[in-house]
């Protein structure tokens, strides 16, 4: 890893706009994140949260402006990014094991060539399964797992490429709070070495863990969790906001 890449921020966006049709989804976004930050992207439905993440991943290209990941284009930096989508499509009748799912994360980073996974790939897969506390289930069918276990397997798949930044889209969607808490405790430990960026609707929950928040509603404003206020949340979501305290003053969104 060269010294220039070490000095570049994990994510830097300059004057980025994006439109699917005529009206912009994101308009003139300027953003620069620090390494090893833990950041949540929040905002109303249709505000541009997932679009912002897809621009960082290189799935979408900006209408104007530039996106850089560690000083590179998202395409050039894709081996540095571990991605966990909101919904991973697996045929429940397809006989794929937990280990097979995790090894998929090695496809773009295989240390050995020739179309097969080698011993080092499998060693890395076992290591990340150990990190998510599922190594004993390596031989189990993926379809036989609980929802929380599946999410941790998908997290292990994202870690298998040995990324420097981890991006997640609604990682606790459809999980109960106890399972979600266990997953976020794991993410907090991973944050000791990785920059983590995630999309979430559950503002009150994620602010217990993250240190920065990107408020997205066509524009993007970055805030420290400690600086969130009722005025900021009301401006972002409208009047349907409820203040929740978690040790320090933090905000949650209350939907009737």
**What's the CATH C level?**
Alpha Beta
Strand order of the largest sheet: 5-6-7-3-8-9
Please indicate the percent range of residues in DSSP E strands (runs of 2 or more). 25-35%
Tell how many strands the DSSP assignment holds. 11
Q: What does the radius of gyration come to? A: 19 Å
Which sheet architecture does the biggest sheet show? 6 strands, mixed
CATH architecture: 3-Layer(aba) Sandwich
Number of domains: 1
Distance between the termini: 50 Å
CATH topology term: Rossmann fold
Overall helicity: 25-40%
Topology:
Layout: H1 3-7, E1 11-19, E2 24-33, E3 38-42, H2 49-57, E4 64-68, E5 81-84, H3 98-103, H4 119-131, H5 147-159, E6 165-169, H6 177-190, E7 195-199, H7 203-206, E8 212-217, E9 219-224, H8 230-237, E10 241-246, E11 248-253
Parallel strand pairs: 3-7, 3-8, 5-6, 6-7
Antiparallel strand pairs: 1-2, 1-4, 8-9, 10-11
Helix pairs in contact: 4-5
Give a short synopsis of this structure.
The chain is an alpha/beta fold and 256 residues long. The chain has eight helices and eleven strands.
What does this structure look like?
The chain is of the alpha/beta class and 256 residues long. It has one domain (3-253): P-loop containing nucleotide triphosphate hydrolases (Rossmann fold, 3-Layer(aba) Sandwich), CATH 3.40.50.300. 28% of the residues lie in helices and 26% in strands. It contains eight helices and eleven strands. It has a six-stranded mixed β-sheet with strand order 5-6-7-3-8-9, sandwiched between helices. Strand 10 (241-246) and strand 11 (248-253) form a beta hairpin. It is globular. The N and C termini lie far apart (50 Å). The model is unreliable at 241-256 (pLDDT under 50).
């Amino acid at each position: 890893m060269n010294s220039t890449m070490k000095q570049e921020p994990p994510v830097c966006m300059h004057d980025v706009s994006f439109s699917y049709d005529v009206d912009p989804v994101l308009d003139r976004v300027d953003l620069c994140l620090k390494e090893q930050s833990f950041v949540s992207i929040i905002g109303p439905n249709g505000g541009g949260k997932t679009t912002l993440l897809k621009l960082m991943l290189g799935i979408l290209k900006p209408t104007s402006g530039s996106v850089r990941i560690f000083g590179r284009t998202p395409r050039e930096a894709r081996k540095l990014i571990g991605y966990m989508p909101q919904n991973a499509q697996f045929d429940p009748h397809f006989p794929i094991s937990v280990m097979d799912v995790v090894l998929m994360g090695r496809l773009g980073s295989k240390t050995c060539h020739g179309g097969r996974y080698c011993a080092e790939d499998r060693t890395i897969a076992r290591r990340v399964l150990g990190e998510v506390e599922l190594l004993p289930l390596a031989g189990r069918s993926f379809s036989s797992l609980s929802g929380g276990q599946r999410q941790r397997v998908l997290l292990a798949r994202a870690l298998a490429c040995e990324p420097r930044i981890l991006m997640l889209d609604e990682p606790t969607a459809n999980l109960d709070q106890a399972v979600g808490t266990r997953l976020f405790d794991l993410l907090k430990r991973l944050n000791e070495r990785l920059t983590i960026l995630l999309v979430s609707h559950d503002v009150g929950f994620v602010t217990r863990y993250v240190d920065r928040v990107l408020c997205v509603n066509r524009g993007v404003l970055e805030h420290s969790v400690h600086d969130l206020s009722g005025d900021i949340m009301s401006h972002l979501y409208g009047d349907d906001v409820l203040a929740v305290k978690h040790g320090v003053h933090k905000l949650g969104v209350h939907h009737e």
